[in-house]
Structures are given as structure tokens and as C-alpha cells.
Design goal:
By secondary structure, this protein is an alpha/beta fold. The protein has helices spanning 22-36, 87-96, 111-123, 137-140, 144-161, 170-175, 223-235, 252-264, 279-288, 303-310, 324-330, 340-352, 354-371, 374-386, and strands spanning 8-12, 40-46, 64-67, 70-75, 102-106, 127-130, 164-167, 185-187, 210-214, 241-245, 271-275, 291-294, 315-318, 333-336. The chain is built from 14 helices and 14 strands. The chain has an 8-stranded mixed sheet, sandwiched between helices.
Length: 392
């Protein structure tokens, strides 16, 4: 007979602070969606709020916090705050693992995630790993020797012992390194909320179009492609407004370098840097945007892209943002390669045709609703969780 109890799901992620960007934040949306689908969900995380001297999150420590139908527990980072490590979280997991049916661990090459997988194996709790793009060959080039050592010594066993490895796109699964481990792969996208109160008035064909970059200001995001390309278009006489929304407290020097470059560039009179935005301000920016850009060098999914699509904004992304096949198939935007000329060409095409931008924007919203719906993804995951053999 089927077990009548709700599935007991443990989500584990090093941090849910906004400073780490969408991939960590998305675990909150996933937990809410799973709870809404009938699972009993507990999210374990730390109070980490950045690696550059930021104060910890102001949250209850070690106590259950009820939030949107699920329970979240924060643990103090100790002894290594720099690495988002928590002995207390691991001890809680060791003591309580038997209370759960499955754990979903988010991130590799993070000491707390690595150790959590080891604890799950030792306690007989099946676990799923979501790499968050850390197995991408380009990402593995950062601190290459350390990651090769870490991967072969520690993560290979974790990958081999996982009930499944959760990739968010077929391309991510295809190119990811496994360090010799044989894995069962799940390919399931991430979800984004679909704005129910979306209001996008018809654009005046004579109005100045707004190009929006809204993401964490990371060196991999392709601003070194986007800004020179947009300069070229500005010099050629194209009229547009460029908004950069995002920050990076982990790398303030890079953020300052972008601001300095823009202030001295041909875009100085038509660009604006707004810093980190959220809530109503974020929704307002998406509502006013005519084009969303992200010519990133690698994205295992691209949550910011999916959010823009959900708001009916057509997108220009590189073919290293791994949901690009969805965008291309749905005609929800334009795809470029990671070079200035290719990006400039597709943006020029997009700016030249406001009717086509509107059509692709509507396609983008339909694509997001059909493929990146949290309720549908939660049901898919619950079915997959339920098919994992129990080891105890």
C-alpha cells in the first residue's frame, strides 16, 4: 500500500542570503512549492551573509521558523565563517536524519554541503545533489588544482553515493564533470513566480527603448561583452537607455570598475546603475524594460533570465546560458555567442523592431508559464523523490 504520510523532505543549502544570488535564493521558492504540493519540508542553512566581512543574518539560531508552509532552521557558522561551515548544522543532521525520507543538497565544493552528503550516507538517508553549475568546465578552471583535488578526493564519493544529481538543463548535464563517478541524472528546471498583476502597456514605436541588465555583478556575467557592444551601437546612432541593476558585496572592486567605465564611456549619458533591487522596485524595472540582456560566459540555468521571461520581457542571452534552447524554440528572444560583435548584431536587430520585441515578449511569458512553473516542478520532484529506493 502507498505510504499515506506526506513525504518528509530536507533541503540543505550553505546560505539563503541575497548576496549569493539566485541559485541559493531559489531554494526558498522550491521549499515553498514542495510544501504547497503536500510535502513536509525542512530547510537547513547557515546565518552566512557574505564572505567579505559582512555581519551575519539577523535570524533565530537553531530554532524552527515557520515560513510559507515549511520550516527553516538557521545555524551559526562555526568554526569557519569564511566557508559557510557549521558544526551545529551537521550535528543536528546526524541526530535527526532518520526523521526524513530524502535530502536535497544544494552546491558542491562547499564544505557544509560536502559534509552533509557524508552524514546522509553514514545515516542511511538518500540524498540528491544539485551542483549549481559548479561542475561546469569553465567554473572548474577557477582554483583548478584545488578543485581537482577536492573533487576527486571528496566530491566523487558524494556524486557516486547520491540517489540522483539534479541538473537544471540538459546542457548542464551534458558538459558537467563527474570526476569518474557514475551518476543517475535528473534534468529539471528551476521555477520562478509568474506575476499575476503584470501590466505591460503597448510600447510607443517612437519611445526610447530600455535595455535592462539585472543580475549579480559577477565577472562571468558578460558585462565586458555587453558594454563595449552597446557603446558601438550608441556611436552608430541607435537610441536606447541602459539600466544596470545589481551589486556584488563579494567583489566591490569589480562593481566600482563597471561604474567607472560607464561614467567615462559613450554610454555615460544614457546609462544608470541602480545597485541591488528587489520587491516592487524589481517588478517596476521589469515592467518598463523592452529588452533583458545576459551575455554570460556560463549559467547552469539563468534565474534572472527566467524572471524576465515571466514578466513578458524578450531576452538577449548567450549560448552559454543553458536555457538558451528553450528561448530559441519558443522565439522568446535572441541568442548570441560570447563576443562583442555577435551581441551587438542581435541587440541591433531587437532594437530595430518594436513589434517583434512585443511578440517575443509574449512568447517569453508563455514559455515561462509552461516550463518554469513552481507548482509543476514541485510535483515532478515529489514524484522523483518518491521513486528513490529507501536504504533503511
Amino acid at each position: 500500500m502507498p505510504d499515506p504520510r506526506p513525504l518528509r523532505v530536507l533541503q540543505i543549502v550553505p546560505s539563503v542570503s541575497v548576496v549569493y544570488g539566485g541559485p541559493s535564493q531559489m531554494v526558498v521558492g522550491l521549499s515553498q512549492a514542495l510544501a504547497g504540493a503536500g510535502a513536509r519540508v525542512t530547510l537547513l542553512t547557515t546565518d552566512s551573509n557574505g564572505d567579505a566581512g559582512q555581519v551575519p543574518l539577523d535570524v533565530p539560531i537553531g530554532q524552527p521558523v515557520l515560513q510559507d508552509g515549511y520550516e527553516i532552521r538557521y545555524f551559526r557558522c562555526a568554526p569557519w565563517r569564511r566557508y559557510k561551515f557549521s558544526i551545529a548544522l551537521l550535528w543536528w543532521l546526524w541526530q535527526r536524519a532518520a526523521e526524513f525520507d530524502v535530502a536535497h543538497i544544494h552546491a558542491l565544493f562547499s564544505p557544509i554541503s560536502t559534509a552533509a552528503a557524508m552524514v546522509c550516507r553514514a545515516r542511511g538517508l538518500p540524498y540528491v545533489l544539485r551542483p549549481l553549475g559548479t561542475l561546469d568546465p569553465l567554473d572548474l578552471q577557477k582554483k583548478r588544482r584545488l578543485k581537482q583535488w577536492y573533487g576527486r578526493l571528496l566530491e566523487r564519493q558524494n556524486l557516486s553515493g547520491a540517489a540522483a544529481v539534479h541538473f537544471t538543463s540538459a546542457e548542464e548535464a551534458k558538459i558537467s564533470e563527474r570526476f569518474g563517478a557514475v551518476t543517475t541524472d535528473w534534468v529539471m528546471p528551476l521555477g520562478v513566480p509568474l506575476p499575476l498583476d503584470l501590466v505591460r502597456s503597448p510600447r510607443d514605436a517612437q519611445a526610447v527603448p530600455t535595455i535592462l541588465f539585472m543580475s549579480r555583478l559577477d565577472r562571468k556575467k558578460g558585462l565586458d561583452i555587453a558594454i563595449p557592444a552597446l557603446e558601438t551601437l550608441a556611436v552608430a546612432g541607435l537610441n536606447f537607455r541602459f539600466i544596470v541593476a545589481g551589486s556584488n558585496v563579494q567583489d566591490p572592486d569589480y562593481e566600482r570598475s563597471i561604474a567607472d567605465y560607464l561614467s567615462r564611456s559613450h554610454l555615460s549619458d544614457r546609462s544608470e546603475m541602480l545597485g541591488f533591487v528587489t520587491g516592487d522596485r524589481k517588478r517596476q524595472l521589469l515592467a518598463m524594460a523592452d529588452l533583458f540582456i545576459l551575455p554570460s560566459y556560463y549559467e547552469n540555468f539563468g534565474i534572472a533570465v527566467a524572471e524576465a521571461m515571466a514578466a513578458a520581457v524578450p531576452v538577449v542571452i548567450s549560448d552559454r546560458v543553458h536555457i538558451w534552447p528553450d528561448v530559441a524554440e519558443a522565439e522568446a528572444g535572441w541568442i548570441c555567442t560570447c563576443d562583442v560583435s555577435s551581441f551587438a548584431d542581435v541587440v541591433r536587430s531587437a532594437l530595430a523592431d518594436p513589434i517583434e520585441r512585443q511578440r517575443r515578449g509574449q512568447n517569453a511569458r508563455a514559455c515561462a508559464a509552461g516550463r518554469y512553473s513552481w507548482p509543476a516542478i514541485a510535483q515532478q520532484l515529489l514524484t522523483a523523490y518518491g521513486e528513490i529506493p529507501r536504504t533503511r
